[in-house]
Amino acid sequence: MQKPDETREFTRLSIPVKVEVKTKDNKSFSATADNVSMNGILLHTDQKMAADTLCEIRIILGEQDPLIIVSHGKVVRTDKKGIAITFTEMDLEGFPHMKNLLLLNASNTGDIENEFSQHAGLHRK
């Protein structure tokens, strides 16, 4: 449940999934997610990226024949915690997989479902 002063629209969950990031100038690196929400991700990495850098994020689920959720985003910040990226768009076929990933890892699925009901995709209704 979000705190009253919380500005986040979606709950963040600690889900240590593998992630690949690629910038428009073809720089890429792999990292592990520290936490994930429907509209962003915090990557645990020593890599540095400037704020407002646009990138493609590929969330990799599974080892053999992995399911890959592709989204695009913008770097919000880089600090000692890692790189925070907000999602600006998500591939249509990845959206239900992201929703399922969050629901399967949530301790209170009712809160997550409520957040989805208040949004059309990544945006508030």
What does this structure look like?
By secondary structure, the chain is of the alpha+beta class. It has one domain: Beta Barrel (Thrombin, subunit H). Helix content is 16%, strand content 44%. It has 2 helices and 8 strands; from the N terminus they run ββββββααββ. It has helices at residues 95-105, 109-117; strands spanning 18-23, 28-37, 40-44, 54-61, 67-79, 82-90, 119-120, 123-124. The strands form 2 sheets. The protein has a 6-stranded antiparallel barrel with strand order 1-2-3-6-5-4. Strands 7-8 form a two-stranded antiparallel ribbon. A hairpin with a 5-residue loop joins β4 (54-61) and β5 (67-79). The longest helix is centred in the C-terminal third of the chain and has 11 residues, at 95-105.
> Remind me, CATH topology?
Thrombin, subunit H
Give the spatial strand order of the biggest sheet. Answer: 1-2-3-6-5-4
Global structural class:
alpha+beta
Rough shape? Answer: globular
CATH secondary-structure class: Mainly Beta
Please tell me the total number of domains. 1
CATH superfamily: predicted glycosyltransferase like domains
Mean pLDDT: 86
Beta-strand fraction estimate: 35-45%
* Rg (C-alpha, Å): 14 Å
Largest sheet: 6 strands, antiparallel, barrel
Q: Show unreliable segments.
A: 1-5
Q: At CATH's second level, what is the architecture? A: Beta Barrel
State the order of secondary-structure elements, H for helix, E for strand. EEEEEEHHEE
